Structure formats: structure tokens, C-alpha cells
Amino acid sequence: MAIWTAAALGLIAALLHVASIAIAITRCAVRRSLERPRPDAPAVSLVRPVCGLDNYVEDTLRSAFELDYPRYELIFCVAFAKDPVVPLVERLIADHPHVRARLLIGDERISDNPKLNNVYKGWRAAAHDWIVVADSNVLMPPDYIQRLLATWRPDTGLVCSPPVGVNPDGVWAELESAFLNTYQARWQYVVDTLGFGFAQGKTMLWRRSDLERLGGIRLLGAEIAEDAAATKLLRDDGLRVRLVDGPFGQPLGRRSAIEVWHRQVRWARIRRATFPLQFLPEVLAGGAVPFACIGIAAAAADTSVLAALGAYAGLWYGAEALLARTAGWPLSWRAPLTWLMRDLLLPVVWVYGWTGTTFVWRGNAMKAVSGSTP
Predict the structure, then answer these.
(1) Residue 38: burial class (beta carbons within 10 Å; 0-12, 13-18, 19+)
(2) Would 372 be classed as within a structural domain?
(3) Are residues 15 and 52 both part of a single domain?
(4) 373 assigned to some structural domain
(5) Which of 255, 283, 311 is the last residue of a domain?
(6) Local confidence pLDDT in tens for the 374 residues of the chain
(7) Of 106, 149, 219, 260, which residue is the least packed, with the fewest Cβ within 10 Å?
């Protein structure tokens, strides 16, 4: 009986895995042409909070000046005048006089979230009803704005894009890509396709009038993460969060093992604090449990465990390779190794998500608790 139960669980997991890959492929396949802006394209304010000098930061910030969109303004927000990113932003603004752009400096504390505090001044200064808030490490394609607007529907309250790791340098950056791309982004598109999309703070397209009607941007400080607060706020109002097809890249560059670990634990603790019921099944989402089931079934059936696991791994990671190739995501010879490393780490990260609340984000000591005071 145990043999059949373990084998059945492994088979069901493999079917769900392949089905999730199929859904992600339809949503993330490489786009063959750029989307042109409509003649009646609305004016858009693009707000980019900046802090420090990330890998590829000049490339990502410059991409905002090179958008193929007729009517947009660009507002950079930084908390402190002595931040090392300030000279870079000022130079980029000077190098692109044809783009209406400015840098706002100041730290107005409206919440426990440093990013939201930084964005607040840009939100208030924005001239248009359509506002995109995008992190400084998002690499924007020329049709960035029109793709976000094309995703909007009458029942939409927010359009987002999950981060996808590109340009990884070294095994640890590739491990981060393994978490971001064929695991996290994949499952986000599955959930979104089923009609239960949730916000992702990397890219957020708002209609300001909608958020103001619900109480204003200060309400995004109701949770430690503004995207979690946005998801709850919009769902309570009957509006949907939608993901743009073809997520936008986040250049990674060099990463250390400890950086990757701290980032995954931070996100796990935030998810556990803000959506504990949805966080519970995450321990089953990777390959660790299904692989264990197949190994148990093979051992009980007195067949080669290594052969069974090898065949199962070929199916499991072969499907991931197909997704990465179809979507144009990084796919090196080390990819199966980093996918295996990720799947072995996922249960450990999940445990750490439950066993602590503190983390450090860009030098700010923070605590992952639900219901912060805005």
C-alpha cells in the first residue's frame, strides 16, 4: 500500500509540475515584436525609487529614458541627498533632455516601509492619473508602458510583473535565477491564470483615482510589504491584480551565497506574515517531497532508486529547461544543479520563514509582522 501511495503522490506532483510549466510557457514565451502605443495612449507618470548602486543600475535606470511611448514623465525618488546613486541619476537626466524627468529628494516617514516612504513624494508629485511604480533594478523594454496598459481590464485594480533574473554571473546568481524564474514566476503565473493574482512590487501600474477612492497610498503601509497591502486592499474592493504577459528582467550580476539566502528568507518571512494560509503549502511546491516519494516507492518495490530518481529528474527538470528556453531566460549547463539546490533549500527556507520575523533590507532593520500602522 505504501508503494502505491508514494508512487501516486509522485505521479500527481509530476503532472501538476508539467501543467504549471505549460501555463507558464503560454504566458512567458519570448515576444517576437514590440507593441506599439495606441494613438489615444494616456499620459503616464513613471515613479522609480532609487537607493544605492545595484549591479547594472546604470543600464536599468537608462532603460526608463528609452521607452517608445509618446507621453510620460519620469520621477526618481531618493531618501538622502548623499546617496551614491544621486550623481548617476542627475547625469542620466542631463543626457536625455527630451524626456521630462526629475529627481526628488527627501524621507517622509508615512509607514514602517522605507520603499513606500521614498515613493510617497513621487506619487504626490505625479502629474497623471496612470502611475507606474517600478524598482530601480527593473530593465524596461521599449514597449514597457504599453504592455502594462494592454493588460488592464475593467475589473483590474493593479497590473504587475514578477521579477525574472537575467545576466547572472556565477553559480550563486544562477541559484537566485532558479528561485526567481522557473519556480516563483512560474507559480505566480499559474495563480494569476486561475484568477487569483497577487501584487508584486517590482512593477506596479496603478490608476491613481482608484487608489485614492479606496483611501490613498498611505493605506499601502498597512502591511510590511506594499504589494501585500495592495493585494488585500484590492481584493476587498472586488478588483483584480493582473500580471503582464512576458515578465520584465532584473539583471543580477554577481551574487554571494549569503545574499541569496538572506533574500529568500526575507521574502519567506514576509509571505508568512502577510498570507500565512497561502504560505503553508509552499513546502510542497518544490521537488523535494515528490523526489522523496519516488525514492520511497522505488526502494519499497526493490528497484534501483538511482535509476528511478534519474528518470524522474529528467522529466521534472527537462520541463523546467523547456520553460527557460521558451521564455528566453538564462539556461546554462549548471541549471539542473541550481534547480536541485533550490529544491533542497525550499523546505529549509520554509522552516526559517516560520521561525523568525526580523530581516535587513538595504540597511534597514525590519520586522515581518502583519498589520503595520500606516
Answers:
(1) exposed
(2) no
(3) no
(4) no
(5) 255
(6) 567 888 888 999 999 999 999 999 999 998 888 888 888 899 999 999 999 999 999 999 999 999 999 999 999 999 999 999 999 999 999 999 999 999 999 988 899 899 999 999 999 999 999 999 999 999 999 999 999 999 999 999 999 999 999 999 999 999 999 999 999 999 999 999 999 999 999 999 999 999 999 999 999 999 989 999 999 999 999 999 999 999 999 999 999 999 999 999 999 999 999 999 999 999 888 999 999 999 998 888 888 989 999 999 999 999 999 999 999 999 999 999 999 999 999 999 999 999 987 776 666 666 666 654 43
(7) 106
Final residue before a domain boundary, out of 255, 282, 311: 255
Same-domain status, 151 and 283: no
Identify the CA nearest to 108 among candidates 98, 117, 96, 97.
117
Spatial distance between the Cα atoms of 177 and 334, rounded to a whole number of angstroms: 11
Q: What is the dihedral of CA 20, 22, 23, 28, to 10 degrees?
A: 110
What is the C-alpha to C-alpha distance for residues 179 and 373, in angstroms, rounded to an integer? 31
Backbone dihedral region of 160: left (phi > 0), alpha (psi from -120 to 50 degrees) or beta? beta
The reported pTM is 0.93
Q: How far apart are CA 18 and CA 12, in angstroms?
A: 10
Is 212 found in the same domain as 196? yes
The answer to whether residues 40 and 16 belong to one domain is no
How many C-beta atoms surround the C-beta of residue 26 within 10 A? 12
CA 144 to chain centre: 16
